[in-house]
Amino acid sequence: MTRLVAAEWIKIRSVRSTGWALALTLALSAGLGYLIGRSFRATFATISADPRQHFDPLFATFYSLTIGQLALVALAVLLVTGEYTTGTVGASLAAVPKRGLFYASKVLTGALLAGSVAVVTVLATFATAQAGLGPHGTSLRGAGVPAAVAGACLYLTLIFLFATGLAGLLRGPVPALGILIPLLFLGSQGLGNVPKLKAIAQYLPDQAGMVVMHIAGQGPDPRFSRPYGPWTGLAIMALWTVAALVAGYLRMRRDP
Description:
Helices cover about 75% and strands about 0% of the residues. The chain is an all-alpha fold.
């Protein structure tokens, strides 16, 4: 497995899109985090009452991850489907005839990459967002912050693996991104605000994972409220991820 992971890592770092996607993930998340923080700070400057009474700084901190994740999702799709579009998957399977082992090494390498990128991205986003929020921000030792930071790292890792499994099932970048991009955009920005669809949309993988980052929760606002807590939401997201990975494996085991 160590040699297989090393081989998968060579594939990942030899693709030009990898560096661009990782850079975009960090730049979009951290850059937008700062801008969102500055926006809240400017708004609070016009309010005479203390805005911090009903304000959760973690919402402003991690909301930008909903945009930055798109680059990470695109990378997961390209890394999986690239071997099928170029036809090199035949050579890979010839070198590793055990498809379960081949698939496991690809998933493990992706998880290690996504986890590492998630830690750097989440910490950078937290720092820039707090700089934007200024006196309205919080610290890494603040109430609920360590759990939210850990949850945000898990969220990005799981969304990457979810995209990996779906890409393995569909085999093509167009159908995979054609499902994932609208899902992540509409699920976050549109479907969750439609009352008749919210009952279903709130259990989508990204919607469930947002609770741990304080982007959604159990508050009074119906647009962001969820009937479950942060770790239950993350468990729902993990179930989606496992289902996608299993579906991708079954497709690989059945077809060349």
